[in-house]
Amino acid sequence: MFHDKFFLFDRVFVTFVVYRAVSLVGLLGCAACSEAETPSEPQIESVFTSNSEQNQVTTSRLESSIRGDNARSVQPTPTAEPLVAAARGRLKSIVVYDGRYMQLDYPNGDVPATMGVCTDVVIRSLRKAYTLDLQQLVHEDMKTNFSAYPTNWGLTRPDKNIDHRRVPNLETYFSRAEQALPITKKESDYKPGDIVSWRLDSNSGRGGLPHIGIVSDRLSRSGTPLIIHNIGGGVEESDMLFRHRITGHFRVVGS
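The chain above was modelled as a monomer; its predicted structure follows.
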């Protein structure tokens, strides 16, 4: 019996270490949502690519223990329901967190289905829900309003392969499209289907990598809306809405 208890403790300890490692890599991996380079520049972004189906299942179980499998649900509005359903569908996918620069088709271009970063959860969900192509929308707006967008990457012209996969660009586009909402600390202000962006700074107010996700139709045990996002370990649903500094709150297509 002692041996069995020791073995169980060992399994729990190892699982905890794996979860913390995945979380840490996720914080580092989110650099791909903002810092991927173009081929003409010195470095190509390459981030965490070791996610496997086993690791995703382990992470999913641990997230379930954190949020509670008995989480309450909130009914989305009719216009938001397709986006929530599309985002929930992303939870079934096996995605390796990989933000490398790739040549994409245009319009409706995408990286391979088994790859993606935080922005790809939003891009793919909006395409599925509303046939809304952020690649084309962002590119067309940047072609005529390039100076309105961030200059974080030292570029002199739009790039349809990567611009829509960068969080700061999405924040700018959604704001320019008049889809921005107030940023508050009130849980009820964040409705299912809303899009939220952060700087992953643990609310320190200093720095932090950009991140983005979609508000779920489920609540944590404490009543906080869960977020469907990819922070490095594959697409997940977790309680992180107020854990970092919110920099954007958006409602797309009347949702």
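Confidence is low (pLDDT under 50) at residues 2-9, 11-25, 37-68.
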